[in-house]
């Protein structure tokens, strides 16, 4: 349980105690209902004329019947509220950690795998509290009460009951954990891989369909499904065997009660209704204890899910906030001073002794061959990585001395791969900053997106498709530039915004940038310096 403990703590003591007590109350109400019903039926059969004596039993049946439903409702409410709080915290921590380590630590990660960890693995972890922790405590409480009650009826029945409940509540779960561990791990791994592969296949569906990769993809899915099915079958077998053993042990308890208490009845020391009550009550107590076997069969897959969620913590950020941060300077001059950089695990430098200054109101175009390190340089300004030698400064202050979020708040960036989210045009734009519809329409018009506005049903309220699938590459790039222009940041970083545009539209975009970012420090990466007007200073890299 040690690796799972973290997914149980923090739900609040009162809630945890409340859910366990309500759970135990529910099972004890079942025990009471069956016991009292047994006593009532046998009492009525033995002395049908004494209705008055039976009245308390009749009332108790009603009381236990109603309270069982009410207690179950309360228990579900409290335990699920607690579980969702726990899961919300775990998921929030996981997402916050991913945001902290992005993008550097995520370069080698699979998006689908990360999604599976944050979503299905965290969902799976609800079983830690609901299936393992709370039911085990409930079973322990119910077992104690049951042993005490049957001991009260017949002291010889107490050790027998304790033994049978011990077998059902301790030995059976221990066996189930061992028997289902490998299947649980395999099930979790196959489910995660299936989720990741599905996402990747959906993303690359057009390529798979047209590029002949479909048979290989289908084969991969078939193998994954077979692995998942085999693991689920193995686990279901363990669960079935545990349930059968639970029923057999419950039956043994019933027989033991009939034999031992029955002797008392034969000798006139115990009444018949008490025999019925103890035998049926004992059987009912197995509802709580006996289910632990099948519940603990999920332990392996819960451990695997917990390990995968915890594994996210192994992703370390490439940059950290300084211990003693410096105040953000008002001057947004961006300067690269003798910057040298190589990617982790790579043997050669991408950037060597790069010196460059971009002042407010200046427009600098960075040109150079593919792979020269132009995007990398923008990444250093955004502090996705830190330089190996030299420094990048903002207003004369080393970026490493500024709080990361503060430093990044000074930049507006349109990346080379324009990120467009599944939403409306307006939603995508307003991620950058709030603006009126008139301002948005004017901006899109300046960037040559008036045609898109006219074509897209709903205009600004038009749905752009998943990842902007309803937009052309050039439209996506211009939408990304629009977001950067909307963002009120004094340094503008544009990574090949004209790559997908015809010369006329490219010039129109550059003019809009000149107009709208007149006072900002602008650094633009391009392979088309011939499109630039006199306002631009061209700097070569590589
Ligand atoms: N995360 C990474 N890990 C390792 N190497 C990387 C990484 N990102 C980029 N590179 C390598 O660094 C070099 C510079 O890449 P970068 O994207 O900065 O070039 P670029 O000048 O912008 O190229 P292009 O004009 O084609 O966009 C390339 O050789 C690339 O393969």
TrEMBL record:
Membrane topology: Multi-pass membrane protein
Major site of localization recorded for this protein: membrane
Superkingdom in the source lineage: Bacteria
Regions crossing the membrane: 20-45, 51-71, 128-153, 159-181
Subcellular location: Cell membrane
Source organism phylogeny: Bacteria, Thermotogati, Deinococcota, Deinococci, Deinococcales
Gene Ontology terms describing biological process: cell redox homeostasis; glutathione transmembrane transport
Organism this protein belongs to: Deinococcus aerius
Name by which UniProt lists this protein: ABC transporter, CydDC cysteine exporter family, permease/ATP-binding protein CydC
Residue ranges of every copy of the ABC transporter domain listed in the record: 334-541
Pfam families: ABC_membrane, ABC_tran
